[in-house]
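Journal club prep — side note

Before the paper discussion, L.F. wants everyone to see what a predicted structure for a comparable chain looks like in token form. Sequence:
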Amino acid sequence: MKHYRMTYAVPLFPMKIKKQPLELEYKIWIPCEAVGDSVDEHITQLLSLAGGMTEEQVSGVWISESGETVQEDVHLLSFISPDAEANLLIRGRIDSLVELLLEEGQEAVLISEDGRHFLISGEVEEVNRNIKFSWRKV
């Protein structure tokens, strides 16, 4: 019977293993048809804040406010905040992206913040429908 010798690769330079704790994980589901230049810009800014992202294309089914079953392809984006400071910036950018998607006609947007899920929808209040703002330099 032949015996085999186990050999192990030894690095030429000792390696120090570094374990960095991360902050919160954020997810947002974006319909594929909603992706455009503005949405891409928000995603690029989120990517730079988080330092990375995972993206998965999935199919979603939901019931609309009118009671219709809607099926659509969506991008599921996941970001993990590297630190507390980035955490606030990422949360703000996601809020801005949600607002953009709602303004562009999405009925609702699903997000997740560290495992807690939120379905966000927007509705213009009747009292605010006709308000016009004027801005002036001070």
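L.F.'s comment for the group: The longest helix spans residues 84-103. Keep this in mind when we get to the figures.
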